[in-house]
């Protein structure tokens, strides 16, 4: 009696549903075409779905997959293995190439099967309906949603070919654990592309979308295996595979090799994400808008920029970078090893100044993606490391002085600012080279005063020091006393001028940004500026060589090599710096605590020089 009543309601429901749908469509035809009615009633934009974007190293290897809300490796129809198509057509929609979006016979058949079993044993949604749910609608169980699904499915079939709809389906289905699309599932669960899967593995993965949580291959593999056998049976029944192939597949053991999204060098790739935003802002006018906007307008412009960046990430872009894997791995290892066992943190940057490319970057020991990235987010006082840029460079350029000219290292004050030299000593008249190599503060202040604050800063303003403001125009700046400081990336980048004959070109990590078709979307178009004459630059190079041969960075000198550079130590040893360069690379390190505290107890170990030497001693030949 119970089953008979069930059949009565089933037949009644099918009749009423069909009558309502056909009646609605017929009524629309009296006024305009069915397609026109559905186009009005169904809000369907061009099909878009978030795709993974990829970041590559200098050798073209993927070093990071960037996802938005959905982890998806998109695969085009021509690349979908036939076995994958057969698995879903056999189990989800055997009449896919025959119906127009809705399979009425399948609806009736499913209702009868489910009524007999007094449970849901068989579904009735076509692949088209499932695509509609994944792209446009929710998975709410209601008659209103079901009717919308039917209307959308019909319209989708008018707008797209069967091949396109099947492609959408394969890329939108969910495989649990944040995984969308069959290709992503193949790479995530078996660590290989779908074209390399066996029949057993294809069927195993095809089992998951029916109920992703229940058939989770990581936690409920037994359930997935049972469903896999059902999938194989359906594939055999439809002729997709033979009885023998089915039997072999059922015996084949399934070995899960779960792999998360690729993200090999988080310090570097996080910076690349930041640099992409800068590139878009520069190319699409947001940077100028922000520079000219009032405080009340900046938030709105910033939100538009963020939305634009997010849109690009979702579109599946490919970013080619300059990352050098061997150098990056050494930098990361050096930071973790040299700064281990204390609260001391650090950052390091390596730039190929021959090409103005950032080849390696570390944002702190044991760095995790999206943590505070000290290489470009930490702004600290540069100490004496600013002297060649703000004091000696401008002084030589303005006066034509020689490195052998004399300068006093005795006490000197300006506007009640009276610095002392490290150790408190005063040494009378010394050569420029000695004053620089020993980093005498009194000598530097004298030269800065002679050149003039505004003139000196006119040179510094040409670099990319983002926190420099007019409030920094004071005498303490000669020794690195800035209001907001500089980042390790900014300071290392500025030192590339010494290896380029006094010319400065901003250093970048991104080479190009392309779309899926390989068309270039963005590239940096930087121009160089001549900061000072070649003669001035050569004098500075001479001074910075003496820092390693007879000055404050003697510990960092590498036998048989000619590195040049400058140390920097701030008041109370809060910050320790060394930026140095050879004929090809410029490398900079900063060491300190996130909440500034004295490093005097460990300063005698010269952690900044030890870290820098560890990095530069293992840089391979270009």
From TrEMBL:
Spans traversing the lipid bilayer: 7-25
Location in or out of the cell: Cell membrane
SUPFAM superfamilies according to UniProt: beta-lactamase/transpeptidase-like (SSF56601), Lysozyme-like (SSF53955)
Designated name of the protein: Penicillin-binding protein
Record-stated family: In the N-terminal section; belongs to the glycosyltransferase 51 family. In the C-terminal section; belongs to the transpeptidase family.
Main localization of the protein described in the UniProt heading: membrane
Keywords of this entry: Carboxypeptidase, Cell membrane, Cell shape, Cell wall biogenesis/degradation, Glycosyltransferase, Hydrolase, Membrane, Multifunctional enzyme, Peptidoglycan synthesis, Protease, Transferase, Transmembrane, Transmembrane helix
Domain Penicillin-binding protein transpeptidase per the UniProt entry, residue ranges: 346-583
Keyword Nucleus: no
């Amino acid at each position: 009696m119970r089953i008979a009543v069930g059949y009565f309601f089933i037949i009644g429901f099918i009749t009423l549903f069909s009558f309502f749908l056909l009646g609605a469509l017929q009524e629309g035809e009296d006024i305009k075409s069915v397609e026109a009615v559905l186009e009005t009633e169904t809000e369907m934009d061009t099909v878009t779905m978030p795709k993974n974007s990829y970041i590559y190293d200098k050798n073209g290897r993927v070093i990071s997959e960037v996802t938005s809300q959905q982890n998806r490796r998109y695969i085009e129809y021509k690349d979908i293995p036939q076995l994958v198509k057969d698995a879903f057509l056999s189990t989800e929609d055997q009449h896919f190439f025959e119906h127009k979006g809705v399979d009425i016979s399948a609806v009736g058949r499913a209702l009868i099967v489910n009524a007999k079993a007094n449970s849901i044993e068989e579904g009735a949604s076509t692949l088209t309906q499932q695509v509609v749910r994944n792209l446009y609608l929710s998975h709410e169980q209601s008659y209103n949603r079901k009717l919308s699904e039917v209307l959308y499915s019909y319209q989708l079939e008018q707008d797209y070919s069967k091949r396109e709809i099947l492609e959408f389906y394969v890329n939108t289905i969910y495989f649990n654990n944040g995984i969308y699309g069959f290709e992503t599932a193949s790479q995530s669960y078996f660590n290989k592309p779908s074209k390399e899967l066996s029949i057993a593995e294809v069927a195993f993965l095809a089992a998951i979308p029916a109920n992703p949580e229940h058939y989770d291959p990581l936690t409920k593999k037994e359930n997935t295996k049972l469903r896999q056998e059902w999938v194989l049976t359906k594939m055999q029944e439809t002729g997709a595979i033979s009885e023998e192939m089915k039997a072999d597949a059922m015996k084949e053991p399934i070995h899960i090799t779960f792999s998360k999204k690729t993200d090999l060098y988080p310090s570097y790739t996080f910076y690349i994400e930041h640099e992409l935003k800068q590139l878009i802002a520069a190319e699409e006018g947001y940077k100028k808008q922000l520079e000219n906007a009032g405080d009340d307008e900046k938030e709105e412009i910033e939100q538009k920029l963020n939305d634009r960046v997010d849109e690009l990430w979702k579109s599946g872009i490919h970013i080619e970078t300059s990352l050098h894997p061997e150098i990056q791995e050494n930098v990361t290892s050096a930071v973790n090893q040299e700064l281990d066992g204390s609260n001391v943190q650090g950052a390091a940057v390596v730039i190929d100044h021959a090409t103005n490319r950032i080849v390696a970057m570390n944002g702190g020991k044991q760095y995790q993606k999206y943590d505070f990235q000290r290489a470009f987010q930490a702004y600290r006082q540069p100490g004496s490391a600013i002297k060649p840029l703000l004091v000696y460079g401008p002084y030589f350029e303005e006066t034509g002085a020689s490195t052998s000219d004399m300068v006093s290292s005795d006490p000197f004050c300006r506007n009640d600012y009276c610095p002392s030299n490290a150790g408190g000593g005063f040494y009378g008249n010394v050569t420029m080279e000695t004053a620089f190599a020993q980093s005498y503060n009194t000598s530097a202040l004298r030269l800065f005063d002679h050149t003039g604050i505004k003139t000196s800063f006119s040179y510094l303003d040409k670099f990319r020091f983002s926190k420099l403001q007019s409030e920094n125009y004071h005498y303490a700046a000669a020794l690195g006393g800035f209001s907001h400081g500089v980042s390790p990336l900014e300071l290392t980048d500025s030192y590339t001028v010494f290896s380029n004959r006094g010319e400065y070109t901003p250093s970048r990590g991104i080479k190009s940004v392309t779309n899926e078709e390989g068309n270039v979307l963005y590239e940096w178009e930087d121009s160089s500026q001549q900061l000072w004459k070649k003669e001035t630059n050569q004098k500075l190079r001479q001074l910075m060589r003496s820092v390693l041969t007879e000055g404050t960075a003697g510990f960092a000198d590498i036998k048989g090599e000619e590195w040049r550079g400058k140390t920097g130590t701030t008041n109370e040893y809060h910050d320790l710096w060394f930026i140095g360069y050879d004929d090809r690379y410029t490398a900079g390190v900063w060491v300190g605590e996130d909440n500034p505290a004295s490093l005097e107890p460990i300063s005698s170990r010269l952690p900044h020089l030890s870290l820098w030497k560890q990095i530069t001693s293992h840089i391979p030949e270009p």
